[in-house]
From TrEMBL:
Sorted UniProt keywords: ATP-binding, Kinase, Membrane, Nucleotide-binding, Phosphoprotein, Transferase, Transmembrane, Transmembrane helix
Enzyme type, top EC level: transferase
Family matches, as InterPro entries: CHASE_dom, Sig_transdc_His_kinase_HWE
Name assigned to this protein: histidine kinase
Pfam families: CHASE, HWE_HK
Catalytic activity annotation: ATP + protein L-histidine = ADP + protein N-phospho-L-histidine
């Protein structure tokens, strides 16, 4: 045995060393592969975003270059470009023609906007307040035409962008630098609209030095730069140029929101910079999975497989010892099973004797000398049926108690459909269930002897409550039959009176009382909750029904 143990130990040590070495190598390889895959995916995404941004900036340049001799006051300047811009790219939100109007051109521009069919032709500031041309000393930038024309966009022409900080700064820079310029992130169409970016390209007529206006295209930020794929290895965030410690992120529905960054918060796995509209934009990439943790999990799996193989090899050498141990445990289980079977038989004998004693008492009391044989037969069948039903319920629960409401749902209770039951759904013990089942049958069987004085069947309510605090909680039961009186209700039998007044209260360790009110018959039962539940009986049943466990070998 010593030599066999030495061999098994040596094999186990060698297998553990080899498994650890394999896990270490797999960890390093998985970590390197994940980092390479993440870096390549980020490079591809950044390249695609740059290409997409360049295409949309090129669209603005091409659109502005198609203007030959733009008429500032013409509100349909985009008419010749519609087919071209839709054929080139169609994912813009709004394309617009912004004209630079001198103070003397405001009236003519207003008439031209009205003639084009726009509902609000008046020249106004960005807050829709009319602009007085007499107060102007220099040209202003006014939206004269847009595409597409919808109920939401038709009201925009006639607005001046000079008093809107983001758009005004964008147009001013485009006019000074004479190239396409992108704005800061801004809500589009309305104050609570989708976050987007506007790119403006100046339209400079031949021979002129100043632009006559601007072609603008607005794009939703999510579709332009922040499209996140559920299957991608990372999520994308855009550094907010308006705030130092802020970034813009888009959810799966394309809704862009702002979140603050902190020095102790998660840092992006990588950053990339793209150019769009004459400025640089910084993209942050956050890995969705923890590469180090994933590599550790893979290494753990490899190590587990190695240890399992080692255990299997060691198990072959220990087969003889294992076989002897298995035989010993089988013998112990058989002995324990026989002991448990004996205990179950003893407990079954005890319960059967109790049930037979109760049935004997029921038969003796029901078939007493001088009783009507037909009435006695019906009562005897009903009482035995009630006992049979509660025994079935207890067998289903392995004699661990019965839900109190289940006793009323049983077919053994007469007129159960007219009984309004309420109370906590407590589980009563086997002994309490037998007494309460007979009690409910006895009360219900005397509740429908013909009709009451008012010509109605009695309406019955049964409710119970549990009051007090552990371990002195008290069980209160109340049975009340409305539309009945002492004159209309069938008198209780001798056995019923004994059961109501003495047997049931004594079985539960409580007391009971019954009486008539002006409109009803009332039966009340009060007992300690510890006798209703009977934890001693439940503990004994749990012990018997517990699975057999082998004892430890000496």
């Amino acid at each position: 045995m010593v030599r066999l143990g030495f061999i098994i130990g040596f094999i186990a040590l060698l297998g553990a060393l080899l498994s650890g070495l394999a896990a270490y190598r797999v960890h390093d390889q998985e970590l390197a592969l994940d980092r390479i895959a993440l870096a390549r995916a980020i490079d591809v995404h950044a390249s695609l975003v740059q290409d997409r941004s360049t295409e949309r900036e090129l669209l603005a340049r091409v659109a502005s270059g198609l203007f030959r001799a733009p008429s500032v006051l013409k509100p349909n300047m985009l008419e010749p470009l519609r087919s071209a811009i839709y054929a080139f790219k169609t994912d813009f939100v709004v394309a617009g023609w912004v004209a630079r109007l001198r103070p003397g051109e405001l009236a003519a521009a207003q008439n031209a906007i009205a003639a084009a069919g726009f509902p609000k032709p008046q020249i106004r500031d960005y807050n829709d307040k009319p602009i007085d041309s007499a107060s102007l000393t220099q040209p202003i930038d006014v939206l004269m035409d847009l595409e597409p024309r919808s109920d939401e966009t038709k009201t925009l022409p006639g607005r001046s962008y000079d008093d809107e900080p983001v758009r005004s700064a964008m147009l001013t820079r485009a006019r000074v630098e004479k190239r396409s310029v992108a704005s800061d992130p801004i809500p589009l169409l309305r104050g609570n609209g989708p976050i987007g970016v506007i790119v403006a390209a100046p339209v400079i007529p031949e021979g002129a030095t100043e632009p006559a206006g601007f072609i603008t295209f607005s794009y939703e930020l999510a579709s332009l730069m922040l499209t996140n794929d559920d299957l991608s290895l990372f999520s994308v965030a855009l550094k907010d140029p308006r705030k130092e410690n802020s970034e813009l992120v888009a959810n799966d529905q394309g809704v862009v929101s702002t979140r603050m960054t902190t020095p102790d918060g998660p840092a992006p796995s990588a950053t990339r910079t793209i150019s769009f509209g004459g400025r640089d934009w910084q993209l942050g990439y956050y890995a969705k999975t923890n590469s180090a943790r994933r590599a550790e999990q893979t290494a753990i799996i490899v190590a587990a497989i190695g240890f399992a193989i080692t255990a299997m090899v060691c198990g072959l050498f220990g087969y003889v010892a294992y076989n002897n141990l298995r035989l010993s445990r089988e013998i112990q289980v058989r002995i324990g099973f026989e002991r448990r079977l004996t205990a179950v038989i003893d407990e079954l004998n005890h319960r059967v004797k109790n049930i037979l004693a109760v049935i004997q008492s029921i038969v003796t009391r029901t078939l007493r000398h001088g009783s009507d044989i037909d009435v006695a037969r019906e009562l005897l069948i009903g009482r035995i049926h009630a006992m049979s039903n509660v025994v079935s319920l207890l067998s289903e629960s392995q004699w661990q108690g019965v839900k109190l409401k289940g006793l009323f749902e049983a077919r053994a209770i007469p007129h159960a459909d007219r009984i309004a039951v309420s109370g906590p759904d407590i589980a009563v013990s086997a002994r309490a269930a037998q007494s309460l089942s007979l009690l409910f049958f006895e009360l219900a069987s005397h509740s429908d002897e013909g009709l009451s004085l008012v010509g109605k069947h009695p309406h019955i309510t049964a409710n119970w409550t549990v009051t007090g605090e552990e371990p002195e909680t008290v069980f209160h039961f109340r049975w009340e039959e409305f539309n009945t009186s002492e004159a209309t209700r069938r008198p209780d039998s001798d056995f019923g009176l004994i059961l109501l007044d003495r047997v049931a209260p004594e079985a539960l360790g409580g007391n009971a009382k019954r009486y008539f009110t002006d409109v009803s018959y009332v039966y009340e039962l009060t007992a300690p909750m510890e006798t209703v539940v009977d934890m001693t009986e439940r503990d004994r049943t749990d012990k018997i029904s517990a699975p057999v466990r082998p004892t430890k070998s000496p």
